[in-house]
Design goal:
This protein is an alpha/beta fold. It folds into two domains: 440 residues, Amino acid/polyamine transporter I (Up-down Bundle), CATH 1.20.1740; 103 residues, no CATH class. A four-stranded mixed β-sheet has the order 6-7-9-8, covered by helices on one side. The N terminus is likely disordered. Pfam families: K_trans (PF02705), K_trans_C (PF22776). Potassium transporter. Its main location: membrane.
């Protein structure tokens, strides 16, 4: 296949690089005897991609060498080819103790394991969506006053079909399948697209990266021509590359913006249940208690979610059980006729009677699907089937019943809209439900805080965010991280929001904009995945953005109407982080290009001789840089400045490839630079965007 296509190499293929002495070497560092050497051609060298002509470490495919070998050397070559030594990841020793750290197992998961995993998803994935009954109807009916049963049934029908269309139809059945080796989220979609098309702006890709087992490149056969056409457009037009990166960064920045509002909204909605139940508990008391809970929530982040994670799933399971049971109780006791809301005609009547007010109420209706993106973003911790089972069997029916129960209560008590959730709870169950609701709100907040940390880490891995301190709070679970700077930033912002808005309805006006924006970004990226990667009929591909994109656009217009009422807040936060990430990525690309222009010629180094024009002392010198080929300019400064150089020089390049995890045995590429007596090598350490870097330089030197 030509250089622009995608080439699948056999898993046992290894590469040769020429040396000045006429011999060759393997890229994993082992030497090849002269009797085993194979001639190589410039055409093969070009097919590798990024290798420079003057770099003796350029890799060449061994596929065309067999014809020029003698029978003896050919036999030795084949024997050497069949012996692929297992390379040791010397820069990530701690990760060796983590079982299953590099992706999902290809083995089929048993039914019992799927059910157990589905139970765990309740505490991690569905916290935000599960706490939405606390505030959805109170926000909807703050825009549309209840004058008859049409408003109640219309709003209920809107909520039911919104949940059925976006989380259930879109995410459960379509988006979850667009995962990157079991990883989800906007960065996962971006890395998946980057593997099939060269759209990354950082020019450090190597053809040998495609040999990583987690690449799994499989082009569609029936739609190959269409896929290649899309691929060519993406690769040849810088505008498309920048637009794609802009979409990904915008989606990520909106997740961060949502992470600022979710703790404030969830905690304040739970605490506000005490108003009207405890005498003298006014708005000031709600604000003070909410701030105290937020301080507690963010203060325990440094201990890691693993310390309390085992409590999340049982609490959320109990929460969903309460939603379902109380909903059934209210339906039977107050008005069973709310089942008429399954008829979508009530949506039409709702808009016909209320007009522009009904359109404004969509901004409150969208709150019922906040957290839907978490089903895809948190996919890396679970399996597709477990998330599907949990939503279909537990979350979806319990939420529908809960909203139907609240609507049945409003049929008889239309003035109870402000505290609809707690007023619809039987008096004897108020305090147990309040405690569970508060814990559920904290868990929902925890999920968004963790998602924010993960987004920042992935953005740093792709060169889109400044390097800040990351603390890994668990030695067993790689995804559990803590970022002190972001934690305290989120805490301060949440406290300011609670102290400023002082009402859940006011915060709700700012809530939802970021969520809808993330949904639209995922719709655009999944559509691109369908066109480029999936074997999907073009008609079905067009139906996806037309159907879901149209619905999400309508919701976006509704939530944008609340910009003056507070909707500007998440947009401001998202714009701030978008500018930071895009500017940092732009600077990273310029920095790499500058280093490429300033690299030192290999001929100049060779002219200095084996001593490099200075004294060589025993030891290993590690020269860290970002170049995947060539000698960095900093090495020339070291030669001029230092009185001596180590006897062995290793140019270490740590780069990220568009996969979630790189297997330990495939992480390193070792190549000789120059002649053998120069003792100079290049080491390219490849990490996925979810890999944990724990460098142990002492162990690396010993290896």
């Amino acid at each position: 296949m030509d250089d622009g296509g995608i080439q699948e190499e056999p898993p046992t293929a290894r590469f040769l690089a020429p040396t000045r002495s006429g011999g060759s070497r393997w890229v994993d560092g082992s030497e090849v005897d002269s009797s085993e050497s194979a001639p190589w051609s410039l055409d093969d060298e070009r097919s590798v991609g990024a290798a420079s002509a003057g770099d003796a470490s350029a890799t060449v495919s061994v596929g065309t060498a067999a014809g020029a070998m003698s029978r003896a050397s050919s036999g030795a070559f084949r024997r050497r080819l069949g012996k692929r030594p297992r390379r040791v990841d010397s820069l990530d020793v701690e990760a060796m103790d983590v079982r299953g750290a590099h992706g999902h197992s290809s083995k089929e998961i048993s039914l019992l394991s799927t059910v157990a995993m589905a139970f765990q998803t309740l505490g991690v994935v569905y916290g935000d969506m599960g706490t939405s009954p606390l505030y959805v109807f109170s926000d909807v009916f703050s825009k549309v006053p209840i004058k008859s049963e049409v408003e109640i049934l219309g709003a209920l029908s809107l909520v039911m079909y919104t949940i059925a269309l976006i989380p259930f139809a879109k995410y459960v059945f379509i988006v979850l399948k667009a995962n990157d080796n079991g990883e989800g989220g906007t960065f996962a979609l971006y890395s998946l697209i980057c593997r099939y098309a060269k759209v990354s702006l950082l020019p450090n890709q190597q053809r040998v990266d495609e040999q990583i087992s987690s690449f799994r490149l499989k082009l569609p056969t029936p739609e190959l021509e269409r896929a290649m056409c899309v691929k060519d457009y993406l690769e040849k037009k810088p505008l498309f590359k920048n637009t794609l990166l802009f979409l990904v960064l915008m989606g990520t920045s909106m997740v961060i913006g949502d992470g600022i509002l979710t703790p404030s909204m969830s905690v304040m909605s739970a605490v506000s249940g005490l108003q009207g139940q405890v005498p003298g508990f006014d708005t000031d008391a709600v604000v003070v208690i909410s701030i105290f809970v937020l301080l507690l929530l963010f203060s325990v982040q440094r201990f890691g979610t693993g310390k309390v994670g085992f409590m999340f799933a049982p609490i959320l399971a109990l929460w969903f059980l309460n939603l379902g049971s109380i909903g059934i109780y209210n339906i039977i006791k107050y008005d069973i006729s709310v089942v008429k809301a399954f008829n979508p005609v009530y949506i039409y009547l709702f808009f016909k009677i209320n007009g522009i007010k009904a359109w404004s109420a969509l901004g409150g209706c969208v709150l019922c699907i906040t957290g839907a993106e978490a089903m895809f973003a948190d996919l890396g911790h679970f399996s597709v089937k477990s998330i599907q089972v949990a939503f279909t069997a537990v979350v979806f029916p319990c939420l529908l019943i809960a909203y139907m129960g609240q609507a049945a209560y409003l049929m008889k008590n239309p003035r109870a809209v402000e505290r609809i959730f707690y007023d619809s709870v039987p008096e004897v169950l108020f305090w147990p439900v309040f405690v569970i609701a508060t814990l559920a709100a904290m868990i929902a907040s925890q999920a968004m805080i963790s998602a924010t940390f993960s987004c920042i880490k992935q953005a740093m891995a792709l060169g889109c965010f400044p390097r800040i301190k990351i603390i890994h709070t668990s030695k067993r679970v790689m995804g559990q991280i803590y970022i002190p700077v972001m934690n305290w930033f989120l805490m301060v912002m949440c406290i300011i929001i609670v102290a400023t808005f002082r009402s859940t309805n006011d915060i709700a006006n700012a809530y939802g904009i970021a969520e809808v924006g993330v949904m639209m970004v995922s719709t655009a990226l999944v559509t691109l995945v369908m066109l480029l990667i999936w074997q999907t009929n073009l008609f079905l591909v067009l139906c996806f953005p037309i159907l879901f994109g149209a619905v999400e656009f309508v919701y976006l217009t509704a939530v944008l109407s609340k910009i003056r009422e507070g909707g500007w807040l998440p947009l401001a936060f998202s714009s701030l982080f978008l500018c930071i990430m895009y500017t940092w990525n732009y600077g990273s690309v310029l920095k790499y290009q500058s280093e490429m222009r300033g690299k030192i010629s290999l001929d100049f180094i060779l002219d200095l001789g084996a001593t490099l024009g200075t004294m060589r002392v025993p030891g290993i010198g590690l020269v860290y840089n970002e170049l995947v080929q060539g000698i960095p300019s900093i090495f020339g400064q070291l030669l001029v400045t230092l009185p001596a150089m180590h006897s062995t020089i290793v140019f270490v390049c740590i780069k990220y490839v568009p996969v979630p995890y790189v297997p330990l045995e495939e992480r390193f590429l070792f190549r000789r630079v120059g002649q053998k007596d120069y003792h100079m090598f290049r080491c390219v350490a490849r990490y996925g965007y979810k890999d944990v870097r724990k460098e142990d330089h002492g162990f690396f030197e010993q290896l």
